[in-house]
Amino acid sequence: MKTLKNEFEEYLQSTLQKDIPSKTREAMNYSLMNGGKRVRPMILFALLQDAGVDPHSGFSCAGAIEMIHTYSLIHDDLPCMDDDDLRRGHPTCHKAFSEAIAVLAGDALLTKAFEIVLESDASDLQKVKLVKSLSECAGINGMILGQDLDMQTENHPLTSFDELKRIEIYKTGMLLSLPMRCACVLSQQEEHIEAWSQIGILLGIQFQIQDDILDKTQTSEVLGKSTSDEKNDKATAISLLGLQKASKIVLDLEQKIKDQLNQIPGDHDCFQQILNYLIQRKY
Amino acid sequence: MKTLKNEFEEYLQSTLQKDIPSKTREAMNYSLMNGGKRVRPMILFALLQDAGVDPHSGFSCAGAIEMIHTYSLIHDDLPCMDDDDLRRGHPTCHKAFSEAIAVLAGDALLTKAFEIVLESDASDLQKVKLVKSLSECAGINGMILGQDLDMQTENHPLTSFDELKRIEIYKTGMLLSLPMRCACVLSQQEEHIEAWSQIGILLGIQFQIQDDILDKTQTSEVLGKSTSDEKNDKATAISLLGLQKASKIVLDLEQKIKDQLNQIPGDHDCFQQILNYLIQRKY
Q1: Which pLDDT tens digit goes with each residue over A220-242?
Q2: pLDDT digits (tens, 9 = 90+) for A153-189
Q3: What is the domain extent for residue A226?
Q4: Which secondary-structure segment (H or E) carries A241?
Q5: Which helix (H) or strand (E) holds A111?
Q6: Record's family (chains A, B) (predicted)?
Q7: A176, A157 Cβ separation under 8 angstroms
Q8: Are A144 and B104 in contact (CB < 8 Å)?
Q9: How many domains does chain A contain in total?
Q10: Which residues of A touch B106 (CB under 8 A)?
Q11: Which residue of B has its CA nearest to A101?
Q12: How many angstroms separate the CA atoms of A140 and A136, rounded?
């Protein structure tokens, strides 16, 4: 998996090299190659490997998902959104370049995601399904709805964990269900697409609460980012439930994910490894 | 064509109605249904009609192009970009809502463009080609490159019309070539796709210089927008060439478009009508 990650980094870098040089391309490259954990790509590769499909066939899809993830971070960090200066230990895109270039770099990464997903060896029907999944999970009924709901909390603070969970389902869950959806399309195992999507969404909620816990218990140096939610006075699982209850919910979610996984036939060894890595992460 | 435009307005409105309600969806609707001239859709429909294909088959494609056009205006109007308050006689998206919602509404319209282009009755292969055209013309080697180059002129003012033309090819031309590209794919006349693209790009340059001339000779009330290029001290065809030479170039471009058109076999009656309307427009 380590080799695969390195190969994927090279692939990702190469996707921008044919483009006409510009400040915006520099900014895209800066944010895309900024040392991300590549969680979503690794999930996609693991699922393909478990299905007996060469993970390399998922590179363009994983690249598209990573571009969408990166664009969402760039726009989320803007002064008019979360106003963050630090991302993965480096200045955020608008700090390193300018606000205008950060807007364009985000736009361009989102657009390019739809370009490179077509580069895979998949059939035309599969490509159509992949584009559909990307646009649905990333759009106004997916990730963007989550960001919208999240923003409304600035004027109407959350009062319950259920409200927060609804936001996380869209904001983090939908994008984490994308590698699952894409893997099912690529490996032609679409009969399990809903079950896998559910795992992605549960993992998204788990991931976000764990982030809140790490924000509270780790320094921003270890995390490589500022803890903007606290700065912005936003409700988190911890502020709503307390550290102990939040940690309990993380464990419950892990169990739910494992239960759901057991209901899907076949071996899930590679995915299990990624899952364990994610559950045990410290940053 | 009038009936067709009304039908298209209804279709466009309907594309957002199934989405989950949110502030961002309101903002998308506000900007998308803001009385645009629908130039690109009408070009697409005219080309289909000339090719003997039912223009209704181009609705989803035209909707996608119009969403991309609208998203680019929303982001272009942002304070960190052109900082415009007025668009088509109404407050710009970030003025009517907020900067954050305007960023998200633009993102969501771009994403949705790729969702609705799949809704057409086209074959999977055609859909793949349409997605490819949309992403290439709108992306980092197309419209976004044009916006990037345009922004660089704030620090490095343009000194020649050729430099301005290069920007317009990308910023306006690529998006105006999209309805042509899509019509060629939908009517299965791809042997003429490059010739038609060229017409779109010439039309884009012509369109932009004509805009500059109208900005200079019409009031902002007639235009329904503020004349931000002048406000932002940006070079225009007029500031570089003077009104007389700029008007001469518009006429030259019109001739070039007609010459190019004559080289494409078949009847172009409907497109000719649109072309005449565009050339004679006063706002």
Answers
A1: 666 666 555 555 678 889 989 99
A2: 988 889 899 999 999 999 999 999 999 999 999 999 9
A3: 2-280
A4: helix A237-241
A5: helix A99-116
A6: Belongs to the FPP/GGPP synthase family.
A7: no
A8: yes
A9: 1
A10: 107
A11: B148
A12: 8
